Amino acid sequence: MQQRESETLVGLSVGTTKITVIVAERDPRYLDAVHVIGMGCSPSHGLSKGVIVNLGEATQSVLKAFQEAENITDRKIDSAIVAFNALDVKCAMTDGMVALGGRDPKRVEIADLDRVIEAAQSRLELSTNMLPIHTIPVRYTLDDRVVDEPLNMTGTRLEIMLLTVSVPLTYVRNIITCVQEAGVQVEGLVLKPLAASLGAVTEEEMRAGCISISIGGGSTGLVLYQGARPFRIISIPIGGYHITSDLASVLRVSLRDAEKIKQRIFIDDEESLRRDGIDIDLAIQVIGARVEELFTDYVKVALSECSPQLFPGGVILSGGVSKTPGIVEMLVDILQMQVRVVTKPLYTMPPGREDASYVSAAGLLRYHSYHNRDPYLFIEPSLPDVKPVTYSRAPVDPDELQSMTVSRENLKGFLSKMAKNFRDLF
Length: 426
Fold this sequence. Notes:
- By secondary structure, this protein is an alpha+beta fold.
- Helices cover 33% and strands 27% of the residues.
- A 5-stranded mixed sheet has the order 3-2-1-6-13, with helices on both faces.
- It is globular, with a radius of gyration of 22 Å.
């Protein structure tokens, strides 16, 4: 018997600070056997708070990331699953029920799954400017019994609770146009908070019930899990870039210098900063004040209707800001839940790309594996048509690729001497 060739998987994560392309191979004999073979990165331009504000600049950033990935893997990229942000994310829960036959029990078939999903979708009220981006079965009930997977089980009545996550149609059209103008077709779309959670949260944590909090450059994403299924996705328009902006304002420096100061703080360059005349204590206060505002005024408010007892798996925190000293103690105090900080994605990443800032890219691979294993876990919508693009990508200069490569963020020693005093500053 001839062995099937490995399938190439490509994910594109579009963020406020960087664009990441991840390329992997999947063994067709084992749906979850994924091996990362290369990545491409480029600084983001033309995005604000995670969304496109300048299509031309965003397209060039995406193009450079694809070119680097192709150069590293020596493969032509034609299509990709894309993770993107949206500011106005809406979640709606609807239910549906279908009879499986007469009085006699009947095995659940694929057609029955389609019928019960359609019944739940028929109860959804959605404005014309919104597009369902994720349709997720949260719970199945067969003859009043909750079941994980009803297919081929026997019963007389099948019910479903269905989560529909929608975003403004303009965001979707813009991201599709951006990727296509970079010469790549969009194979599927995933909201970045969901992608980040899939790259960071374990199966055990999902099944127990947990909250994924991913702090990106321009926004913070929350995904709430119960019974291994997400039941709510939230996007908050505050991220690491806002800390940079705060530092620039308080320290009276440019945004570029503020970003450099923040990065030097991340690598515990305290003494050097003091010699340069930087008020390091004030900088720490600025960082802490913004983080406390994010958790108290936004995250806690968004979770106000949820009891901590619903999430025995606790909070899984990812993103560069998660390395802030004292952040775990602060979040535990605010949410009254245990907190785990993600140090690396669930998949083994290439050298220099192992830290938690790449969880969204890794999550796209897990999303692809899940969808191949069970197409009813994440039901993909039909994507809107956009203007066809006939763009041919020229080879990239290797010297330019070298300059585009994003260096690894070394956050391990980040202000360890200040950790015990962090909360006392507030």
